Amino acid sequence: MAASIHLVRAGLRVLCIEADITDKTPVGESLDWSAPDLLAGLGLPMQRLIDEGFGTWKRHVTLKLADGSTAHYVPGEWLAQPPFNIELRTLHLDRVRLNAAVREIAIRDGVRILHDRVSEVEARGRGVVSVTTAQGASIASPWFIDASGSSARLFPRTFNLPASDYGPPKVAIWTYLTVDESIEGTTLHVEGDSPSYMDWVWEIPIHTETISIGFVAHGDTIKNLRASGQSVDDILRTQLERFPRFRDLIRSAPALPVNVTSYRCRVHSHVFGPNWLVAGEAAAMVDPMTSNGVTAALRHASEAAALIIKYRHRNRIPWIAGALYSRRVQDVARFFNCGIEKVVYDGPIRNFIGVKTAGDVYTIPAWSLNNVYARISPRGVVSSMFVCLLLGAFRIAASVLHSFCKYEQAPCGAPG
Ligand SMILES: Cc1cc2nc3c(=O)[nH]c(=O)nc-3n(C[C@H](O)[C@H](O)[C@H](O)COP(=O)(O)OP(=O)(O)OC[C@H]3O[C@@H](n4cnc5c(N)ncnc54)[C@H](O)[C@@H]3O)c2cc1C
């Protein structure tokens, strides 16, 4: 939808094929610091979103352990000073309302929306000729953007694009609760007793009196709990009961309308062709704990649309421009996924330096590099390669630290 808005504003005729406009299970409620500028570019500045009740301010992230201790991760005040001038606030958003507002802007600006599901992609060589929908419409176009999300991944499947997985399959179970007053900021609740792989609970105040709470765990953990007879509702209740903050809230809530989704963080490469690009989670899924999915999707939308606008009269995207787009999409996602898996989810680093310090080790480079990306806005060869080298260097550092901590904690005589 965001890509459609950029394209239609540049004078292209745009059809957005949208399979599901009901927003049954919207996620992506806690935004990273780079998202507000991208939303403002669509016509949704932060102040308007707050004034019109779309969400709440997010100024920090809090890590809360089951023993009640906390760590706060706040962008430094110095970042707000020249020459950085970085906005220190971002947002938590009610995604149903946000999605409706984005759709309204798209329609107002002239995007035609077709409520249908793409069921087939007709390709010739590396080009896309047309798509066919479930209701039988065949749609040809000189340009295509695939933003069908991580489950559908239409073009990556059609072209069998190479992919790397990060971490195990995971499951998220979440609900919404009414509270007297929400805690400001996003709170991540964790057990804190050195598990080998971490599970966690998010608490996101999408309105001052409504919180989104979700439990995220290794797919096998949920599988075992389901095999022991627990329903997803039981699992969510049991997991939330571990934390004093939720105990009374949960007990006083008779029935929870529970949402559940499973996912695997997967990053595709070569997400471009002569007349198509892949954007958002269809190209690369970053773990929800990074709060980077919405930023990534909006960024891809803007960059993919810019390429089509720039090369619309050439009728094809030059290989180098497509390859640089693909590299940026891939390297940013790999950086976030590698960082969060190695530093936070996986045991060796977290248990060696403590979960609170691990939070710093992850957030400082993650937030800084996201700001560098937003500042530089890489498009050309030099800026793209510079950013990709920086991202790669941090990924290597995380891997080296992971191996070191694993070695240090290995019992004497045990392999590696
Ligand atoms: C549990 C969970 C929690 C998350 N929390 C956060 C968070 O706090 N912050 C954050 O930034 N990100 C978060 N994310 C990630 C974030 O939700 C996504 O990255 C973001 O919504 C962008 O997704 P997208 O637009 O690429 O795909 P989606 O939002 O999945 O949209 C894909 C669209 O394509 C449509 N579609 C699918 N198949 C077809 C087809 N065949 N034909 C036509 N249309 C089709 C779908 O109906 C859908 O509208 C979370 C993700 C998960 C799983």
Could you please describe the fold and organization of this structure?
The chain is of the alpha+beta class and 416 residues long. It has helices spanning 2-9, 35-40, 46-51, 95-109, 149-152, 154-158, 219-227, 232-241, 244-251, 293-311, 319-345, 347-353, 355-376, 381-409, and strands at 15-18, 55-58, 61-65, 70-73, 90-93, 112-115, 118-124, 127-133, 138-140, 144-146, 163-178, 186-190, 200-207, 210-218, 259-268, 272-273, 276-278. The strands form five sheets. Strands 4-3-12-13-14-11-15 form a seven-stranded mixed β-sheet. β8 and β9 form a beta hairpin. The longest helix has 29 residues, at 381-409. The chain is globular, with a radius of gyration of 22 Å. The N and C termini lie far apart (48 Å).
Quick overview of this protein structure:
With 416 residues, the protein is α+β, with helices and mostly antiparallel strands. Helix content is 42%, strand content 24%. It is globular.
Low-pLDDT regions: none
Gyration radius from CA atoms, angstroms = 22 Å
How far the N terminus sits from the C terminus, by CA atoms, comes to 48 Å
**Most strands sheet:** 7 strands, mixed
Note the quaternary state here: single chain
Estimate the strand proportion. Answer: 15-25%
Q: Order of strands side by side in the largest beta sheet?
A: 4-3-12-13-14-11-15
Number of strands: 17
Structural shape: globular
Rounded mean pLDDT is 93
Hetero groups:
flavin-adenine dinucleotide
Q: Which secondary-structure class do the elements indicate? A: alpha+beta
Number of helices: 14
Percent helix, as a range, is: 40-55%
